Amino acid sequence: MDPTDLGSSAAPAAADGESQAVVNNEPPFVLIEPLRRTTPLIFASPHSGRRYPAELLADARVSLISLRRSEDAYVDELFAGAAAHGACVLSGTVARAYVDLNRDPAELDPDMFDERPPQSPQNNSARVQAGLGAIPRISGDGQTIYRRKLALSEAERRINTVHRPYHTLLQSLVAETKEQFGCAVLIDCHSMPNNARGAHAPDVVLGDRFGASCHPSVTALAEVTLRRLGYRVARNTPFAGGHTTQSYGRPAAHVHALQIEINRALYVDERTLERTNGYARVRADMTRLAEALSAANLHKSLA
Hints:
Layout: H1 20-23, E1 29-32, E2 41-45, H2 54-59, H3 64-68, H4 75-78, E3 88-92, H5 126-129, H6 152-181, E4 184-192, E5 204-207, H7 216-228, E6 233-235, H8 243-248, E7 255-263, H9 278-295, H10 298-302
Parallel strand pairs: 2-3, 2-4, 4-7, 5-6
Antiparallel strand pairs: 1-3, 5-7
């Protein structure tokens, strides 16, 4: 597979080492807006990016398919239908292996760089220790990504050109939505490996940080809708929510954030990352979930 041709969001490789997002003057995200906003819902997919900048591929000691196993493959496509029900849909387009949009930008592993990052408690977070900081050290199948230490300036550039623009736009969407509807409901969309589902093997895990990031009525409506569609649903185990839900979810301030994790094996072959026959069903069902959440007129009860 040509690493510069990974789907509709791919772009030609950069020759001078700059990220594709910068060289081609393309933002590191895609925003789908409805013809008319009718709901405070914002769907966001930070990990579905399929653009692999040339410098990442040059420095990687692992194969492209290993890098791609970090992706929440096609999650952007699964939720794109939410725009037909009055919601905004924001998706990162640059690979998670390059920079992780669902991490605090201070979550930098000191051992990965030729200089020490600024001292921060985030340098030693559980995610950094696991190799999954803002600049990941390991790929989705547990292999070490880089053949050498990176310049700290490289991490800073990735954060400035990819991470910061994504969150600047997301913050603006949340603020504008809250101003229009009196509240904002952010659905942070992800997929999980089949082997990461925990003891009860749910199809979908809803994470609201045990009630801290989202009003329980939103989580309950998502759960009952998914169960009616035939999915086994768990809450907060093994995924309670990440940087996005922690940073944006402020129910007392009328901003709610709910993470959704879908079992990847329901719609892709996890070995090849090709879509399977289950893809059409999951995509249709995620549109139905968006429809149910939109139809609930959440702003009337949450504003």
